[in-house]
Amino acid sequence: SSRLGPSPGLALLWCNPSPPPSPPALRTWSSMARALPATAAAARRGCVLLLLLALRSGECAGPRDAVRLDPGDAEDSVALVQHGVQPRRPQASRDTRLSTRPLMLTTIRDSQDAEEITTVEVFCSAYPALCREPFNCQNFTPDMADPVSWAINGLAADGKPNYMAWCKNFQRGPIMAKCVAGDLLGSAKTRYLLTTAGMFGGLQRELDGSACFLEGHCANAAVTENTTVEEAAKICDEHYGHEAWAHFGSAFAPAENQVGFGITLEDMRDQRNGFLRREQSRPFTLASCAMGSFHCDVIYCRETYCKDEYYIEKYGHFLEEQGWAR
Predict the structure, then answer these.
(1) Residue-wise over 55-69: b if at least 16 C-beta within 10 A, else e?
(2) What's the predicted TM-score (pTM) here?
(3) Given this model, what pLDDT does residue 31 score?
(4) In terms of C-beta distances under 8 Å and separation of at least 24 residues, what long-range contacts does 230-233 make, across chains too?
(5) Phi and psi angles of residue 17, each rounded to the nearest 5 degrees, phi first
(6) Residue 182 Cα distances to 52, 129, 133, 185, angstroms
(7) Average pLDDT in the 282-293 region?
(8) Predicted confidence band at 116 (pLDDT cuts at 50, 70, 90)?
(9) 68 Cβ contact list (under 8 Å, min separation 6)
(10) What is the SS3 string spanning the chain?
(11) How many CA atoms lie within 13 A of 304 on its CB side?
């Protein structure tokens, strides 16, 4: 069987929304802004209204299928407007860099201030939570020293979860905003709402549900809703070994620690049964340890799929087969 190379993010998705402009101020949107009339006082104060519904080429859920709003603060809610998300045929994409080409962007600003509009402002307006501690994505660029170091040494070579790595997974900003704030239940609810709305692909629930049982999250009593990221790192050490998760993402990591290991082309053709083997799901859990979301992942599983009879019947056997339960 052929092995697929590392794929982006923490999940295999049917379709991946095309990213908004990257944080670096590579260009301004002055020409677009000048073409729009100045309107209310809010516009003159520099209010930026963003409509980022850029989708990668290929058949995916359409822009009217769901709308996601990034919360400004961890306690804010996620607004979902659902219009019957219809998952369609998957089309893979491997480009995880923060792109500078949005397919749809509307900027309203006074023409006299147009020169000041940068892609940093655009990105941070779309994902405000990611432009604050501990993410600081406003300072992230794909060619900066950190990503080069990650590719060599791994995401968390210093033994501490790497939150800036989420700058390349910014679609999950609302989820991680709550996670880092210690609102594990809120993070789980937000993630489940977005997932069921189809924001991460039509079969994401199958992937998540299978991983919950394969990785033993449904039987993990060590993680509670009050578990800290430091405590989660120790649990990752116990379950996976420190070196495995700390050096996740390194080009020199063992093949079994890299996303895509054990996943064949045949597996990719039909994802209706989620992950089929633990060798497929394990690298994603290493990634969650390295990126500081492991404890939030466990609560997400326990509050959703682990209680759902459909997923219990379909994937529950993995708990015993993998030695998580007796």
Answers:
(1) bbeeebbeeebbbbe
(2) 0.67
(3) 38
(4) 231/295, 232/289, 232/292, 232/294, 232/295, 233/159, 233/160, 233/161, 233/289, 233/294
(5) -55, 135
(6) 28, 14, 14, 9
(7) 97
(8) low
(9) 78, 79, 80, 171, 174, 194, 197, 199
(10) CCCCCCCCCCCCCCCCECCCCCCCCCCECHHHHHCCCCCCHHHHCCCCCCCCCCECCCCCCCCCCCCCCCCCCCCCCCCCCCCCCCCCCCCCCCCCCCCCCCCCCCCCCCHHHHHHCEHHHHHHHHCHHHHCCCCCHHHCCCCCHHHHHHHHHCCCCCCCCCHHHHHHCHHHHHHHHHHHCCCHHHHHHHHHHHHHCCCCCCCHHHHHHHHHHHCCHHHCCCCCCCCCHHHHHHHHHHHHCHHHHHCCCCCCCCHHHCCCCCCCHHHHHCCCCCCCCHHHHHHHHHHHHHCCCHHHHHHHHHHCHHHCHHHHHHHCHHHHHCCCCC
(11) 26
Task: Please answer whether residues 47 and 33 qualify as being in contact, where contact means their C-beta atoms are separated by less than 8 angstroms.
Answer: no
In this predicted model, what pLDDT tens digit does every residue of 176-218 receive, in sequence order?
A: 999 999 999 999 999 999 999 999 998 999 999 999 999 999 9
pLDDT band at 315 (very low <50, low <70, confident <90, very high): very high
- Structure tokens belonging to residue 149: 């170091």
* Contacts with 272 (C-beta within 8 Å, 6 or more apart), sequence order: 203, 206
Spatial CB neighbours of 299, under 8 Å, sequence gap ≥ 6: 184, 185, 187, 188, 223, 225
Q: What is the C-alpha separation between 25 and 12, in angstroms, rounded?
A: 30
Per domain, the residue ranges of the chain are 118-322
Amino acid letter, 25 = A
**Contacts of residue 38, Cβ cutoff 8 Å, sequence gap at least 6:** 44, 109, 110, 111
Joined tokens for residue 236 = 């990752």
Dump pLDDT digits (tens) for 82-102: 333 333 333 433 333 344 333
Tokens of residue 283, six digits: 């690298």
